[in-house]
Design brief:
single chain, alpha/beta, Rossmann fold, six-stranded mixed β-sheet, three-stranded antiparallel β-sheet, binds inosinic acid
C-alpha cells in the first residue's frame, strides 16, 4: 500500500466548494451556463459544484489524452471524446480537477474558442502554479497547492484512489515518476 497523507480534508473541500459556487452563481446571475467537465478527474468536483450553484445549468463532458509513449508525455493533446452540445453563443464554464503544466487547459480553451461561445471561463479545483510549462490562469480556483502529487476527490494515481473523500499527498516519492501516474 502506498503511503498517503491528508493535505485537504473533506470538510475543508466542502466549505471551499460552497464558496466558489456562491461566486460563480453571482457572476452568472440570470444567465444559463453550460458546465463542461474534463473526464475523468473532474467528475467528483463537478457533481459537488453543480449541486451548490443557484443557477440554471446544463452539463457535458470532454475527454482528452496526451500523445506520447509509455510514461513520457510529448505535451501534445487530443480530444478522445468530444462534447455533444453546440456551444456557439453559450456561456461555457470548463470544470477541471487540477491545472498542472497548463497544457491540457490551454489546448481545450483554444479548441472551444473556435466554436464561438458567448463566454468561456475555467474553474479548477486545484492549481499547481509552480509546474506551468505554458502560461495559464483559471478564472475560479479551489486551492493553490505546492508541487506535490495528490490523489482523491476524483484525482487518481494509475486509476487508483479517485474515491478518497480527502485530497491526499502520495508520500512514496519513488512511486511517482516525472509524468508517471498522470492519467487525466
Ligand atoms: P496539465 O499538466 O495541466 O495538462 O494537467 C494534465 C492532467 O494531469 C490533469 O488533468 C490531471 O488529471 C493530471 N494531474 C496533474 N497533476 C496531478 C496530481 O497531482 N494528481 C493526479 N493527477 C494529476
Amino acid at each position: 500500500m502506498i503511503k498517503k497523507e491528508i493535505l485537504i480534508t473533506s470538510a475543508a473541500i466542502d466549505r471551499r466548494v460552497a464558496e466558489i459556487a456562491d461566486v460563480i452563481s453571482r457572476d452568472y446571475e440570470g444567465k444559463e451556463v453550460l458546465l463542461i467537465g474534463i473526464l475523468k478527474g473532474a467528475f467528483v468536483f463537478m457533481a459537488d459544484l453543480i449541486r451548490k450553484l443557484h443557477l440554471s445549468c446544463k452539463v457535458d463532458f470532454v475527454r482528452l489524452a496526451s500523445y506520447g509513449t509509455g510514461t513520457v508525455s510529448s505535451g501534445k493533446i487530443m480530444i478522445t471524446k468530444d462534447i455533444e452540445t453546440p456551444i456557439k453563443g453559450k456561456n461555457v464554464l470548463i470544470v477541471e480537477d487540477i491545472v498542472d503544466t497548463g497544457l491540457t487547459l490551454s489546448f481545450l480553451v483554444e479548441k472551444l474558442k473556435e466554436r464561438d461561445p458567448h463566454s468561456l471561463k475555467v474553474c479548477v479545483f486545484l492549481d499547481k502554479k509552480e509546474r506551468r510549462k505554458t502560461p495559464f490562469e483559471a478564472d475560479y480556483i479551489g486551492f493553490d497547492i505546492p508541487d506535490r502529487f495528490v490523489v482523491g476527490y476524483g484525482l487518481d494515481f494509475n486509476e487508483m484512489y479517485r474515491f478518497l473523500p480527502d485530497i491526499c499527498e502520495i508520500k512514496d516519492s519513488q512511486e511517482i515518476g516525472e509524468e508517471n501516474g498522470r492519467s487525466m
